[in-house]
Design goal:
5 helices, elongated, Pnp Oxidase, Chain A, 10 strands, 10-stranded antiparallel beta sheet, alpha+beta
């Protein structure tokens, strides 16, 4: 198979069956404008040949780092399958229609939480956040909850995708796909 997206789909489908919690969890590595790194877990909310999509508050640390340095790394690690996938590439914002459509699928409480949160900023006490959440419940009582202007998604456009499969005695299998002007090239890497 020479299409990294078809291989991703196969591995992801297997993970959705075997991983008990959050099979769509992926580590997102970013760096600020000076190159200082940061990594955290986010959830994959869409994928295909155009890239891998996640959503976040645009005023938080993660988004600030992406805006300062729009090149990231993703890592899926599925322990039950003894597999991982590394993805590297530039990031672009999703369009408003895409962000609106995804936001509409979230639970109401998640929608309200997006309005209530000042993501990554200091919080004096959890009660303060819960009070803001209750304010949002009252504000939008009886109506739909629109997507906040400070909340959207990012798409990682892959330039490199590496598939790692655990093998006995650390004789792992590594397949690297690299984007070219003509499509994708594939090679094996030593473990």
């Amino acid at each position: 198979m020479h299409d990294p997206f078809l291989l991703f789909d196969r591995w992801y489908a297997a993970a959705r069956k075997s991983e008990i919690n959050d099979s769509n969890a992926m580590a997102l590595a970013t760096a600020d404008g000076t190159g200082f790194p940061s990594v955290r877990m986010v959830l994959l909310k869409g994928h295909g040949p155009d890239g891998f999509v996640f959503y976040t508050n645009l005023e938080g640390r993660k988004a600030a780092q992406i805006i300062a340095n729009p090149h990231v790394g993703l890592l899926f690690h599925w322990k039950s399958l003894r597999r991982q996938i590394r993805i590297e590439g530039p990031v672009e914002r999703v369009d408003d229609a895409t962000a609106d459509a995804y936001f509409a699928t979230r639970s109401r409480d998640s929608q309200l939480g997006a309005w209530a949160s000042d993501q990554s900023r200091p919080l004096d006490a959890r009660e303060a956040f819960m009070a803001r959440f209750e304010e949002m419940q009252a504000r939008f009582d009886g109506g739909s909850v629109p997507r906040p202007p400070h909340w959207s998604g990012f798409r990682v456009v892959p330039e490199r995708i590496e598939f790692w499969q655990d093998r006995e005695h650390r004789l792992h299998e590594r397949r690297l796909f690299m984007r070219t002007e003509d499509g994708w090239t594939e090679c094996l890497l030593y473990p």
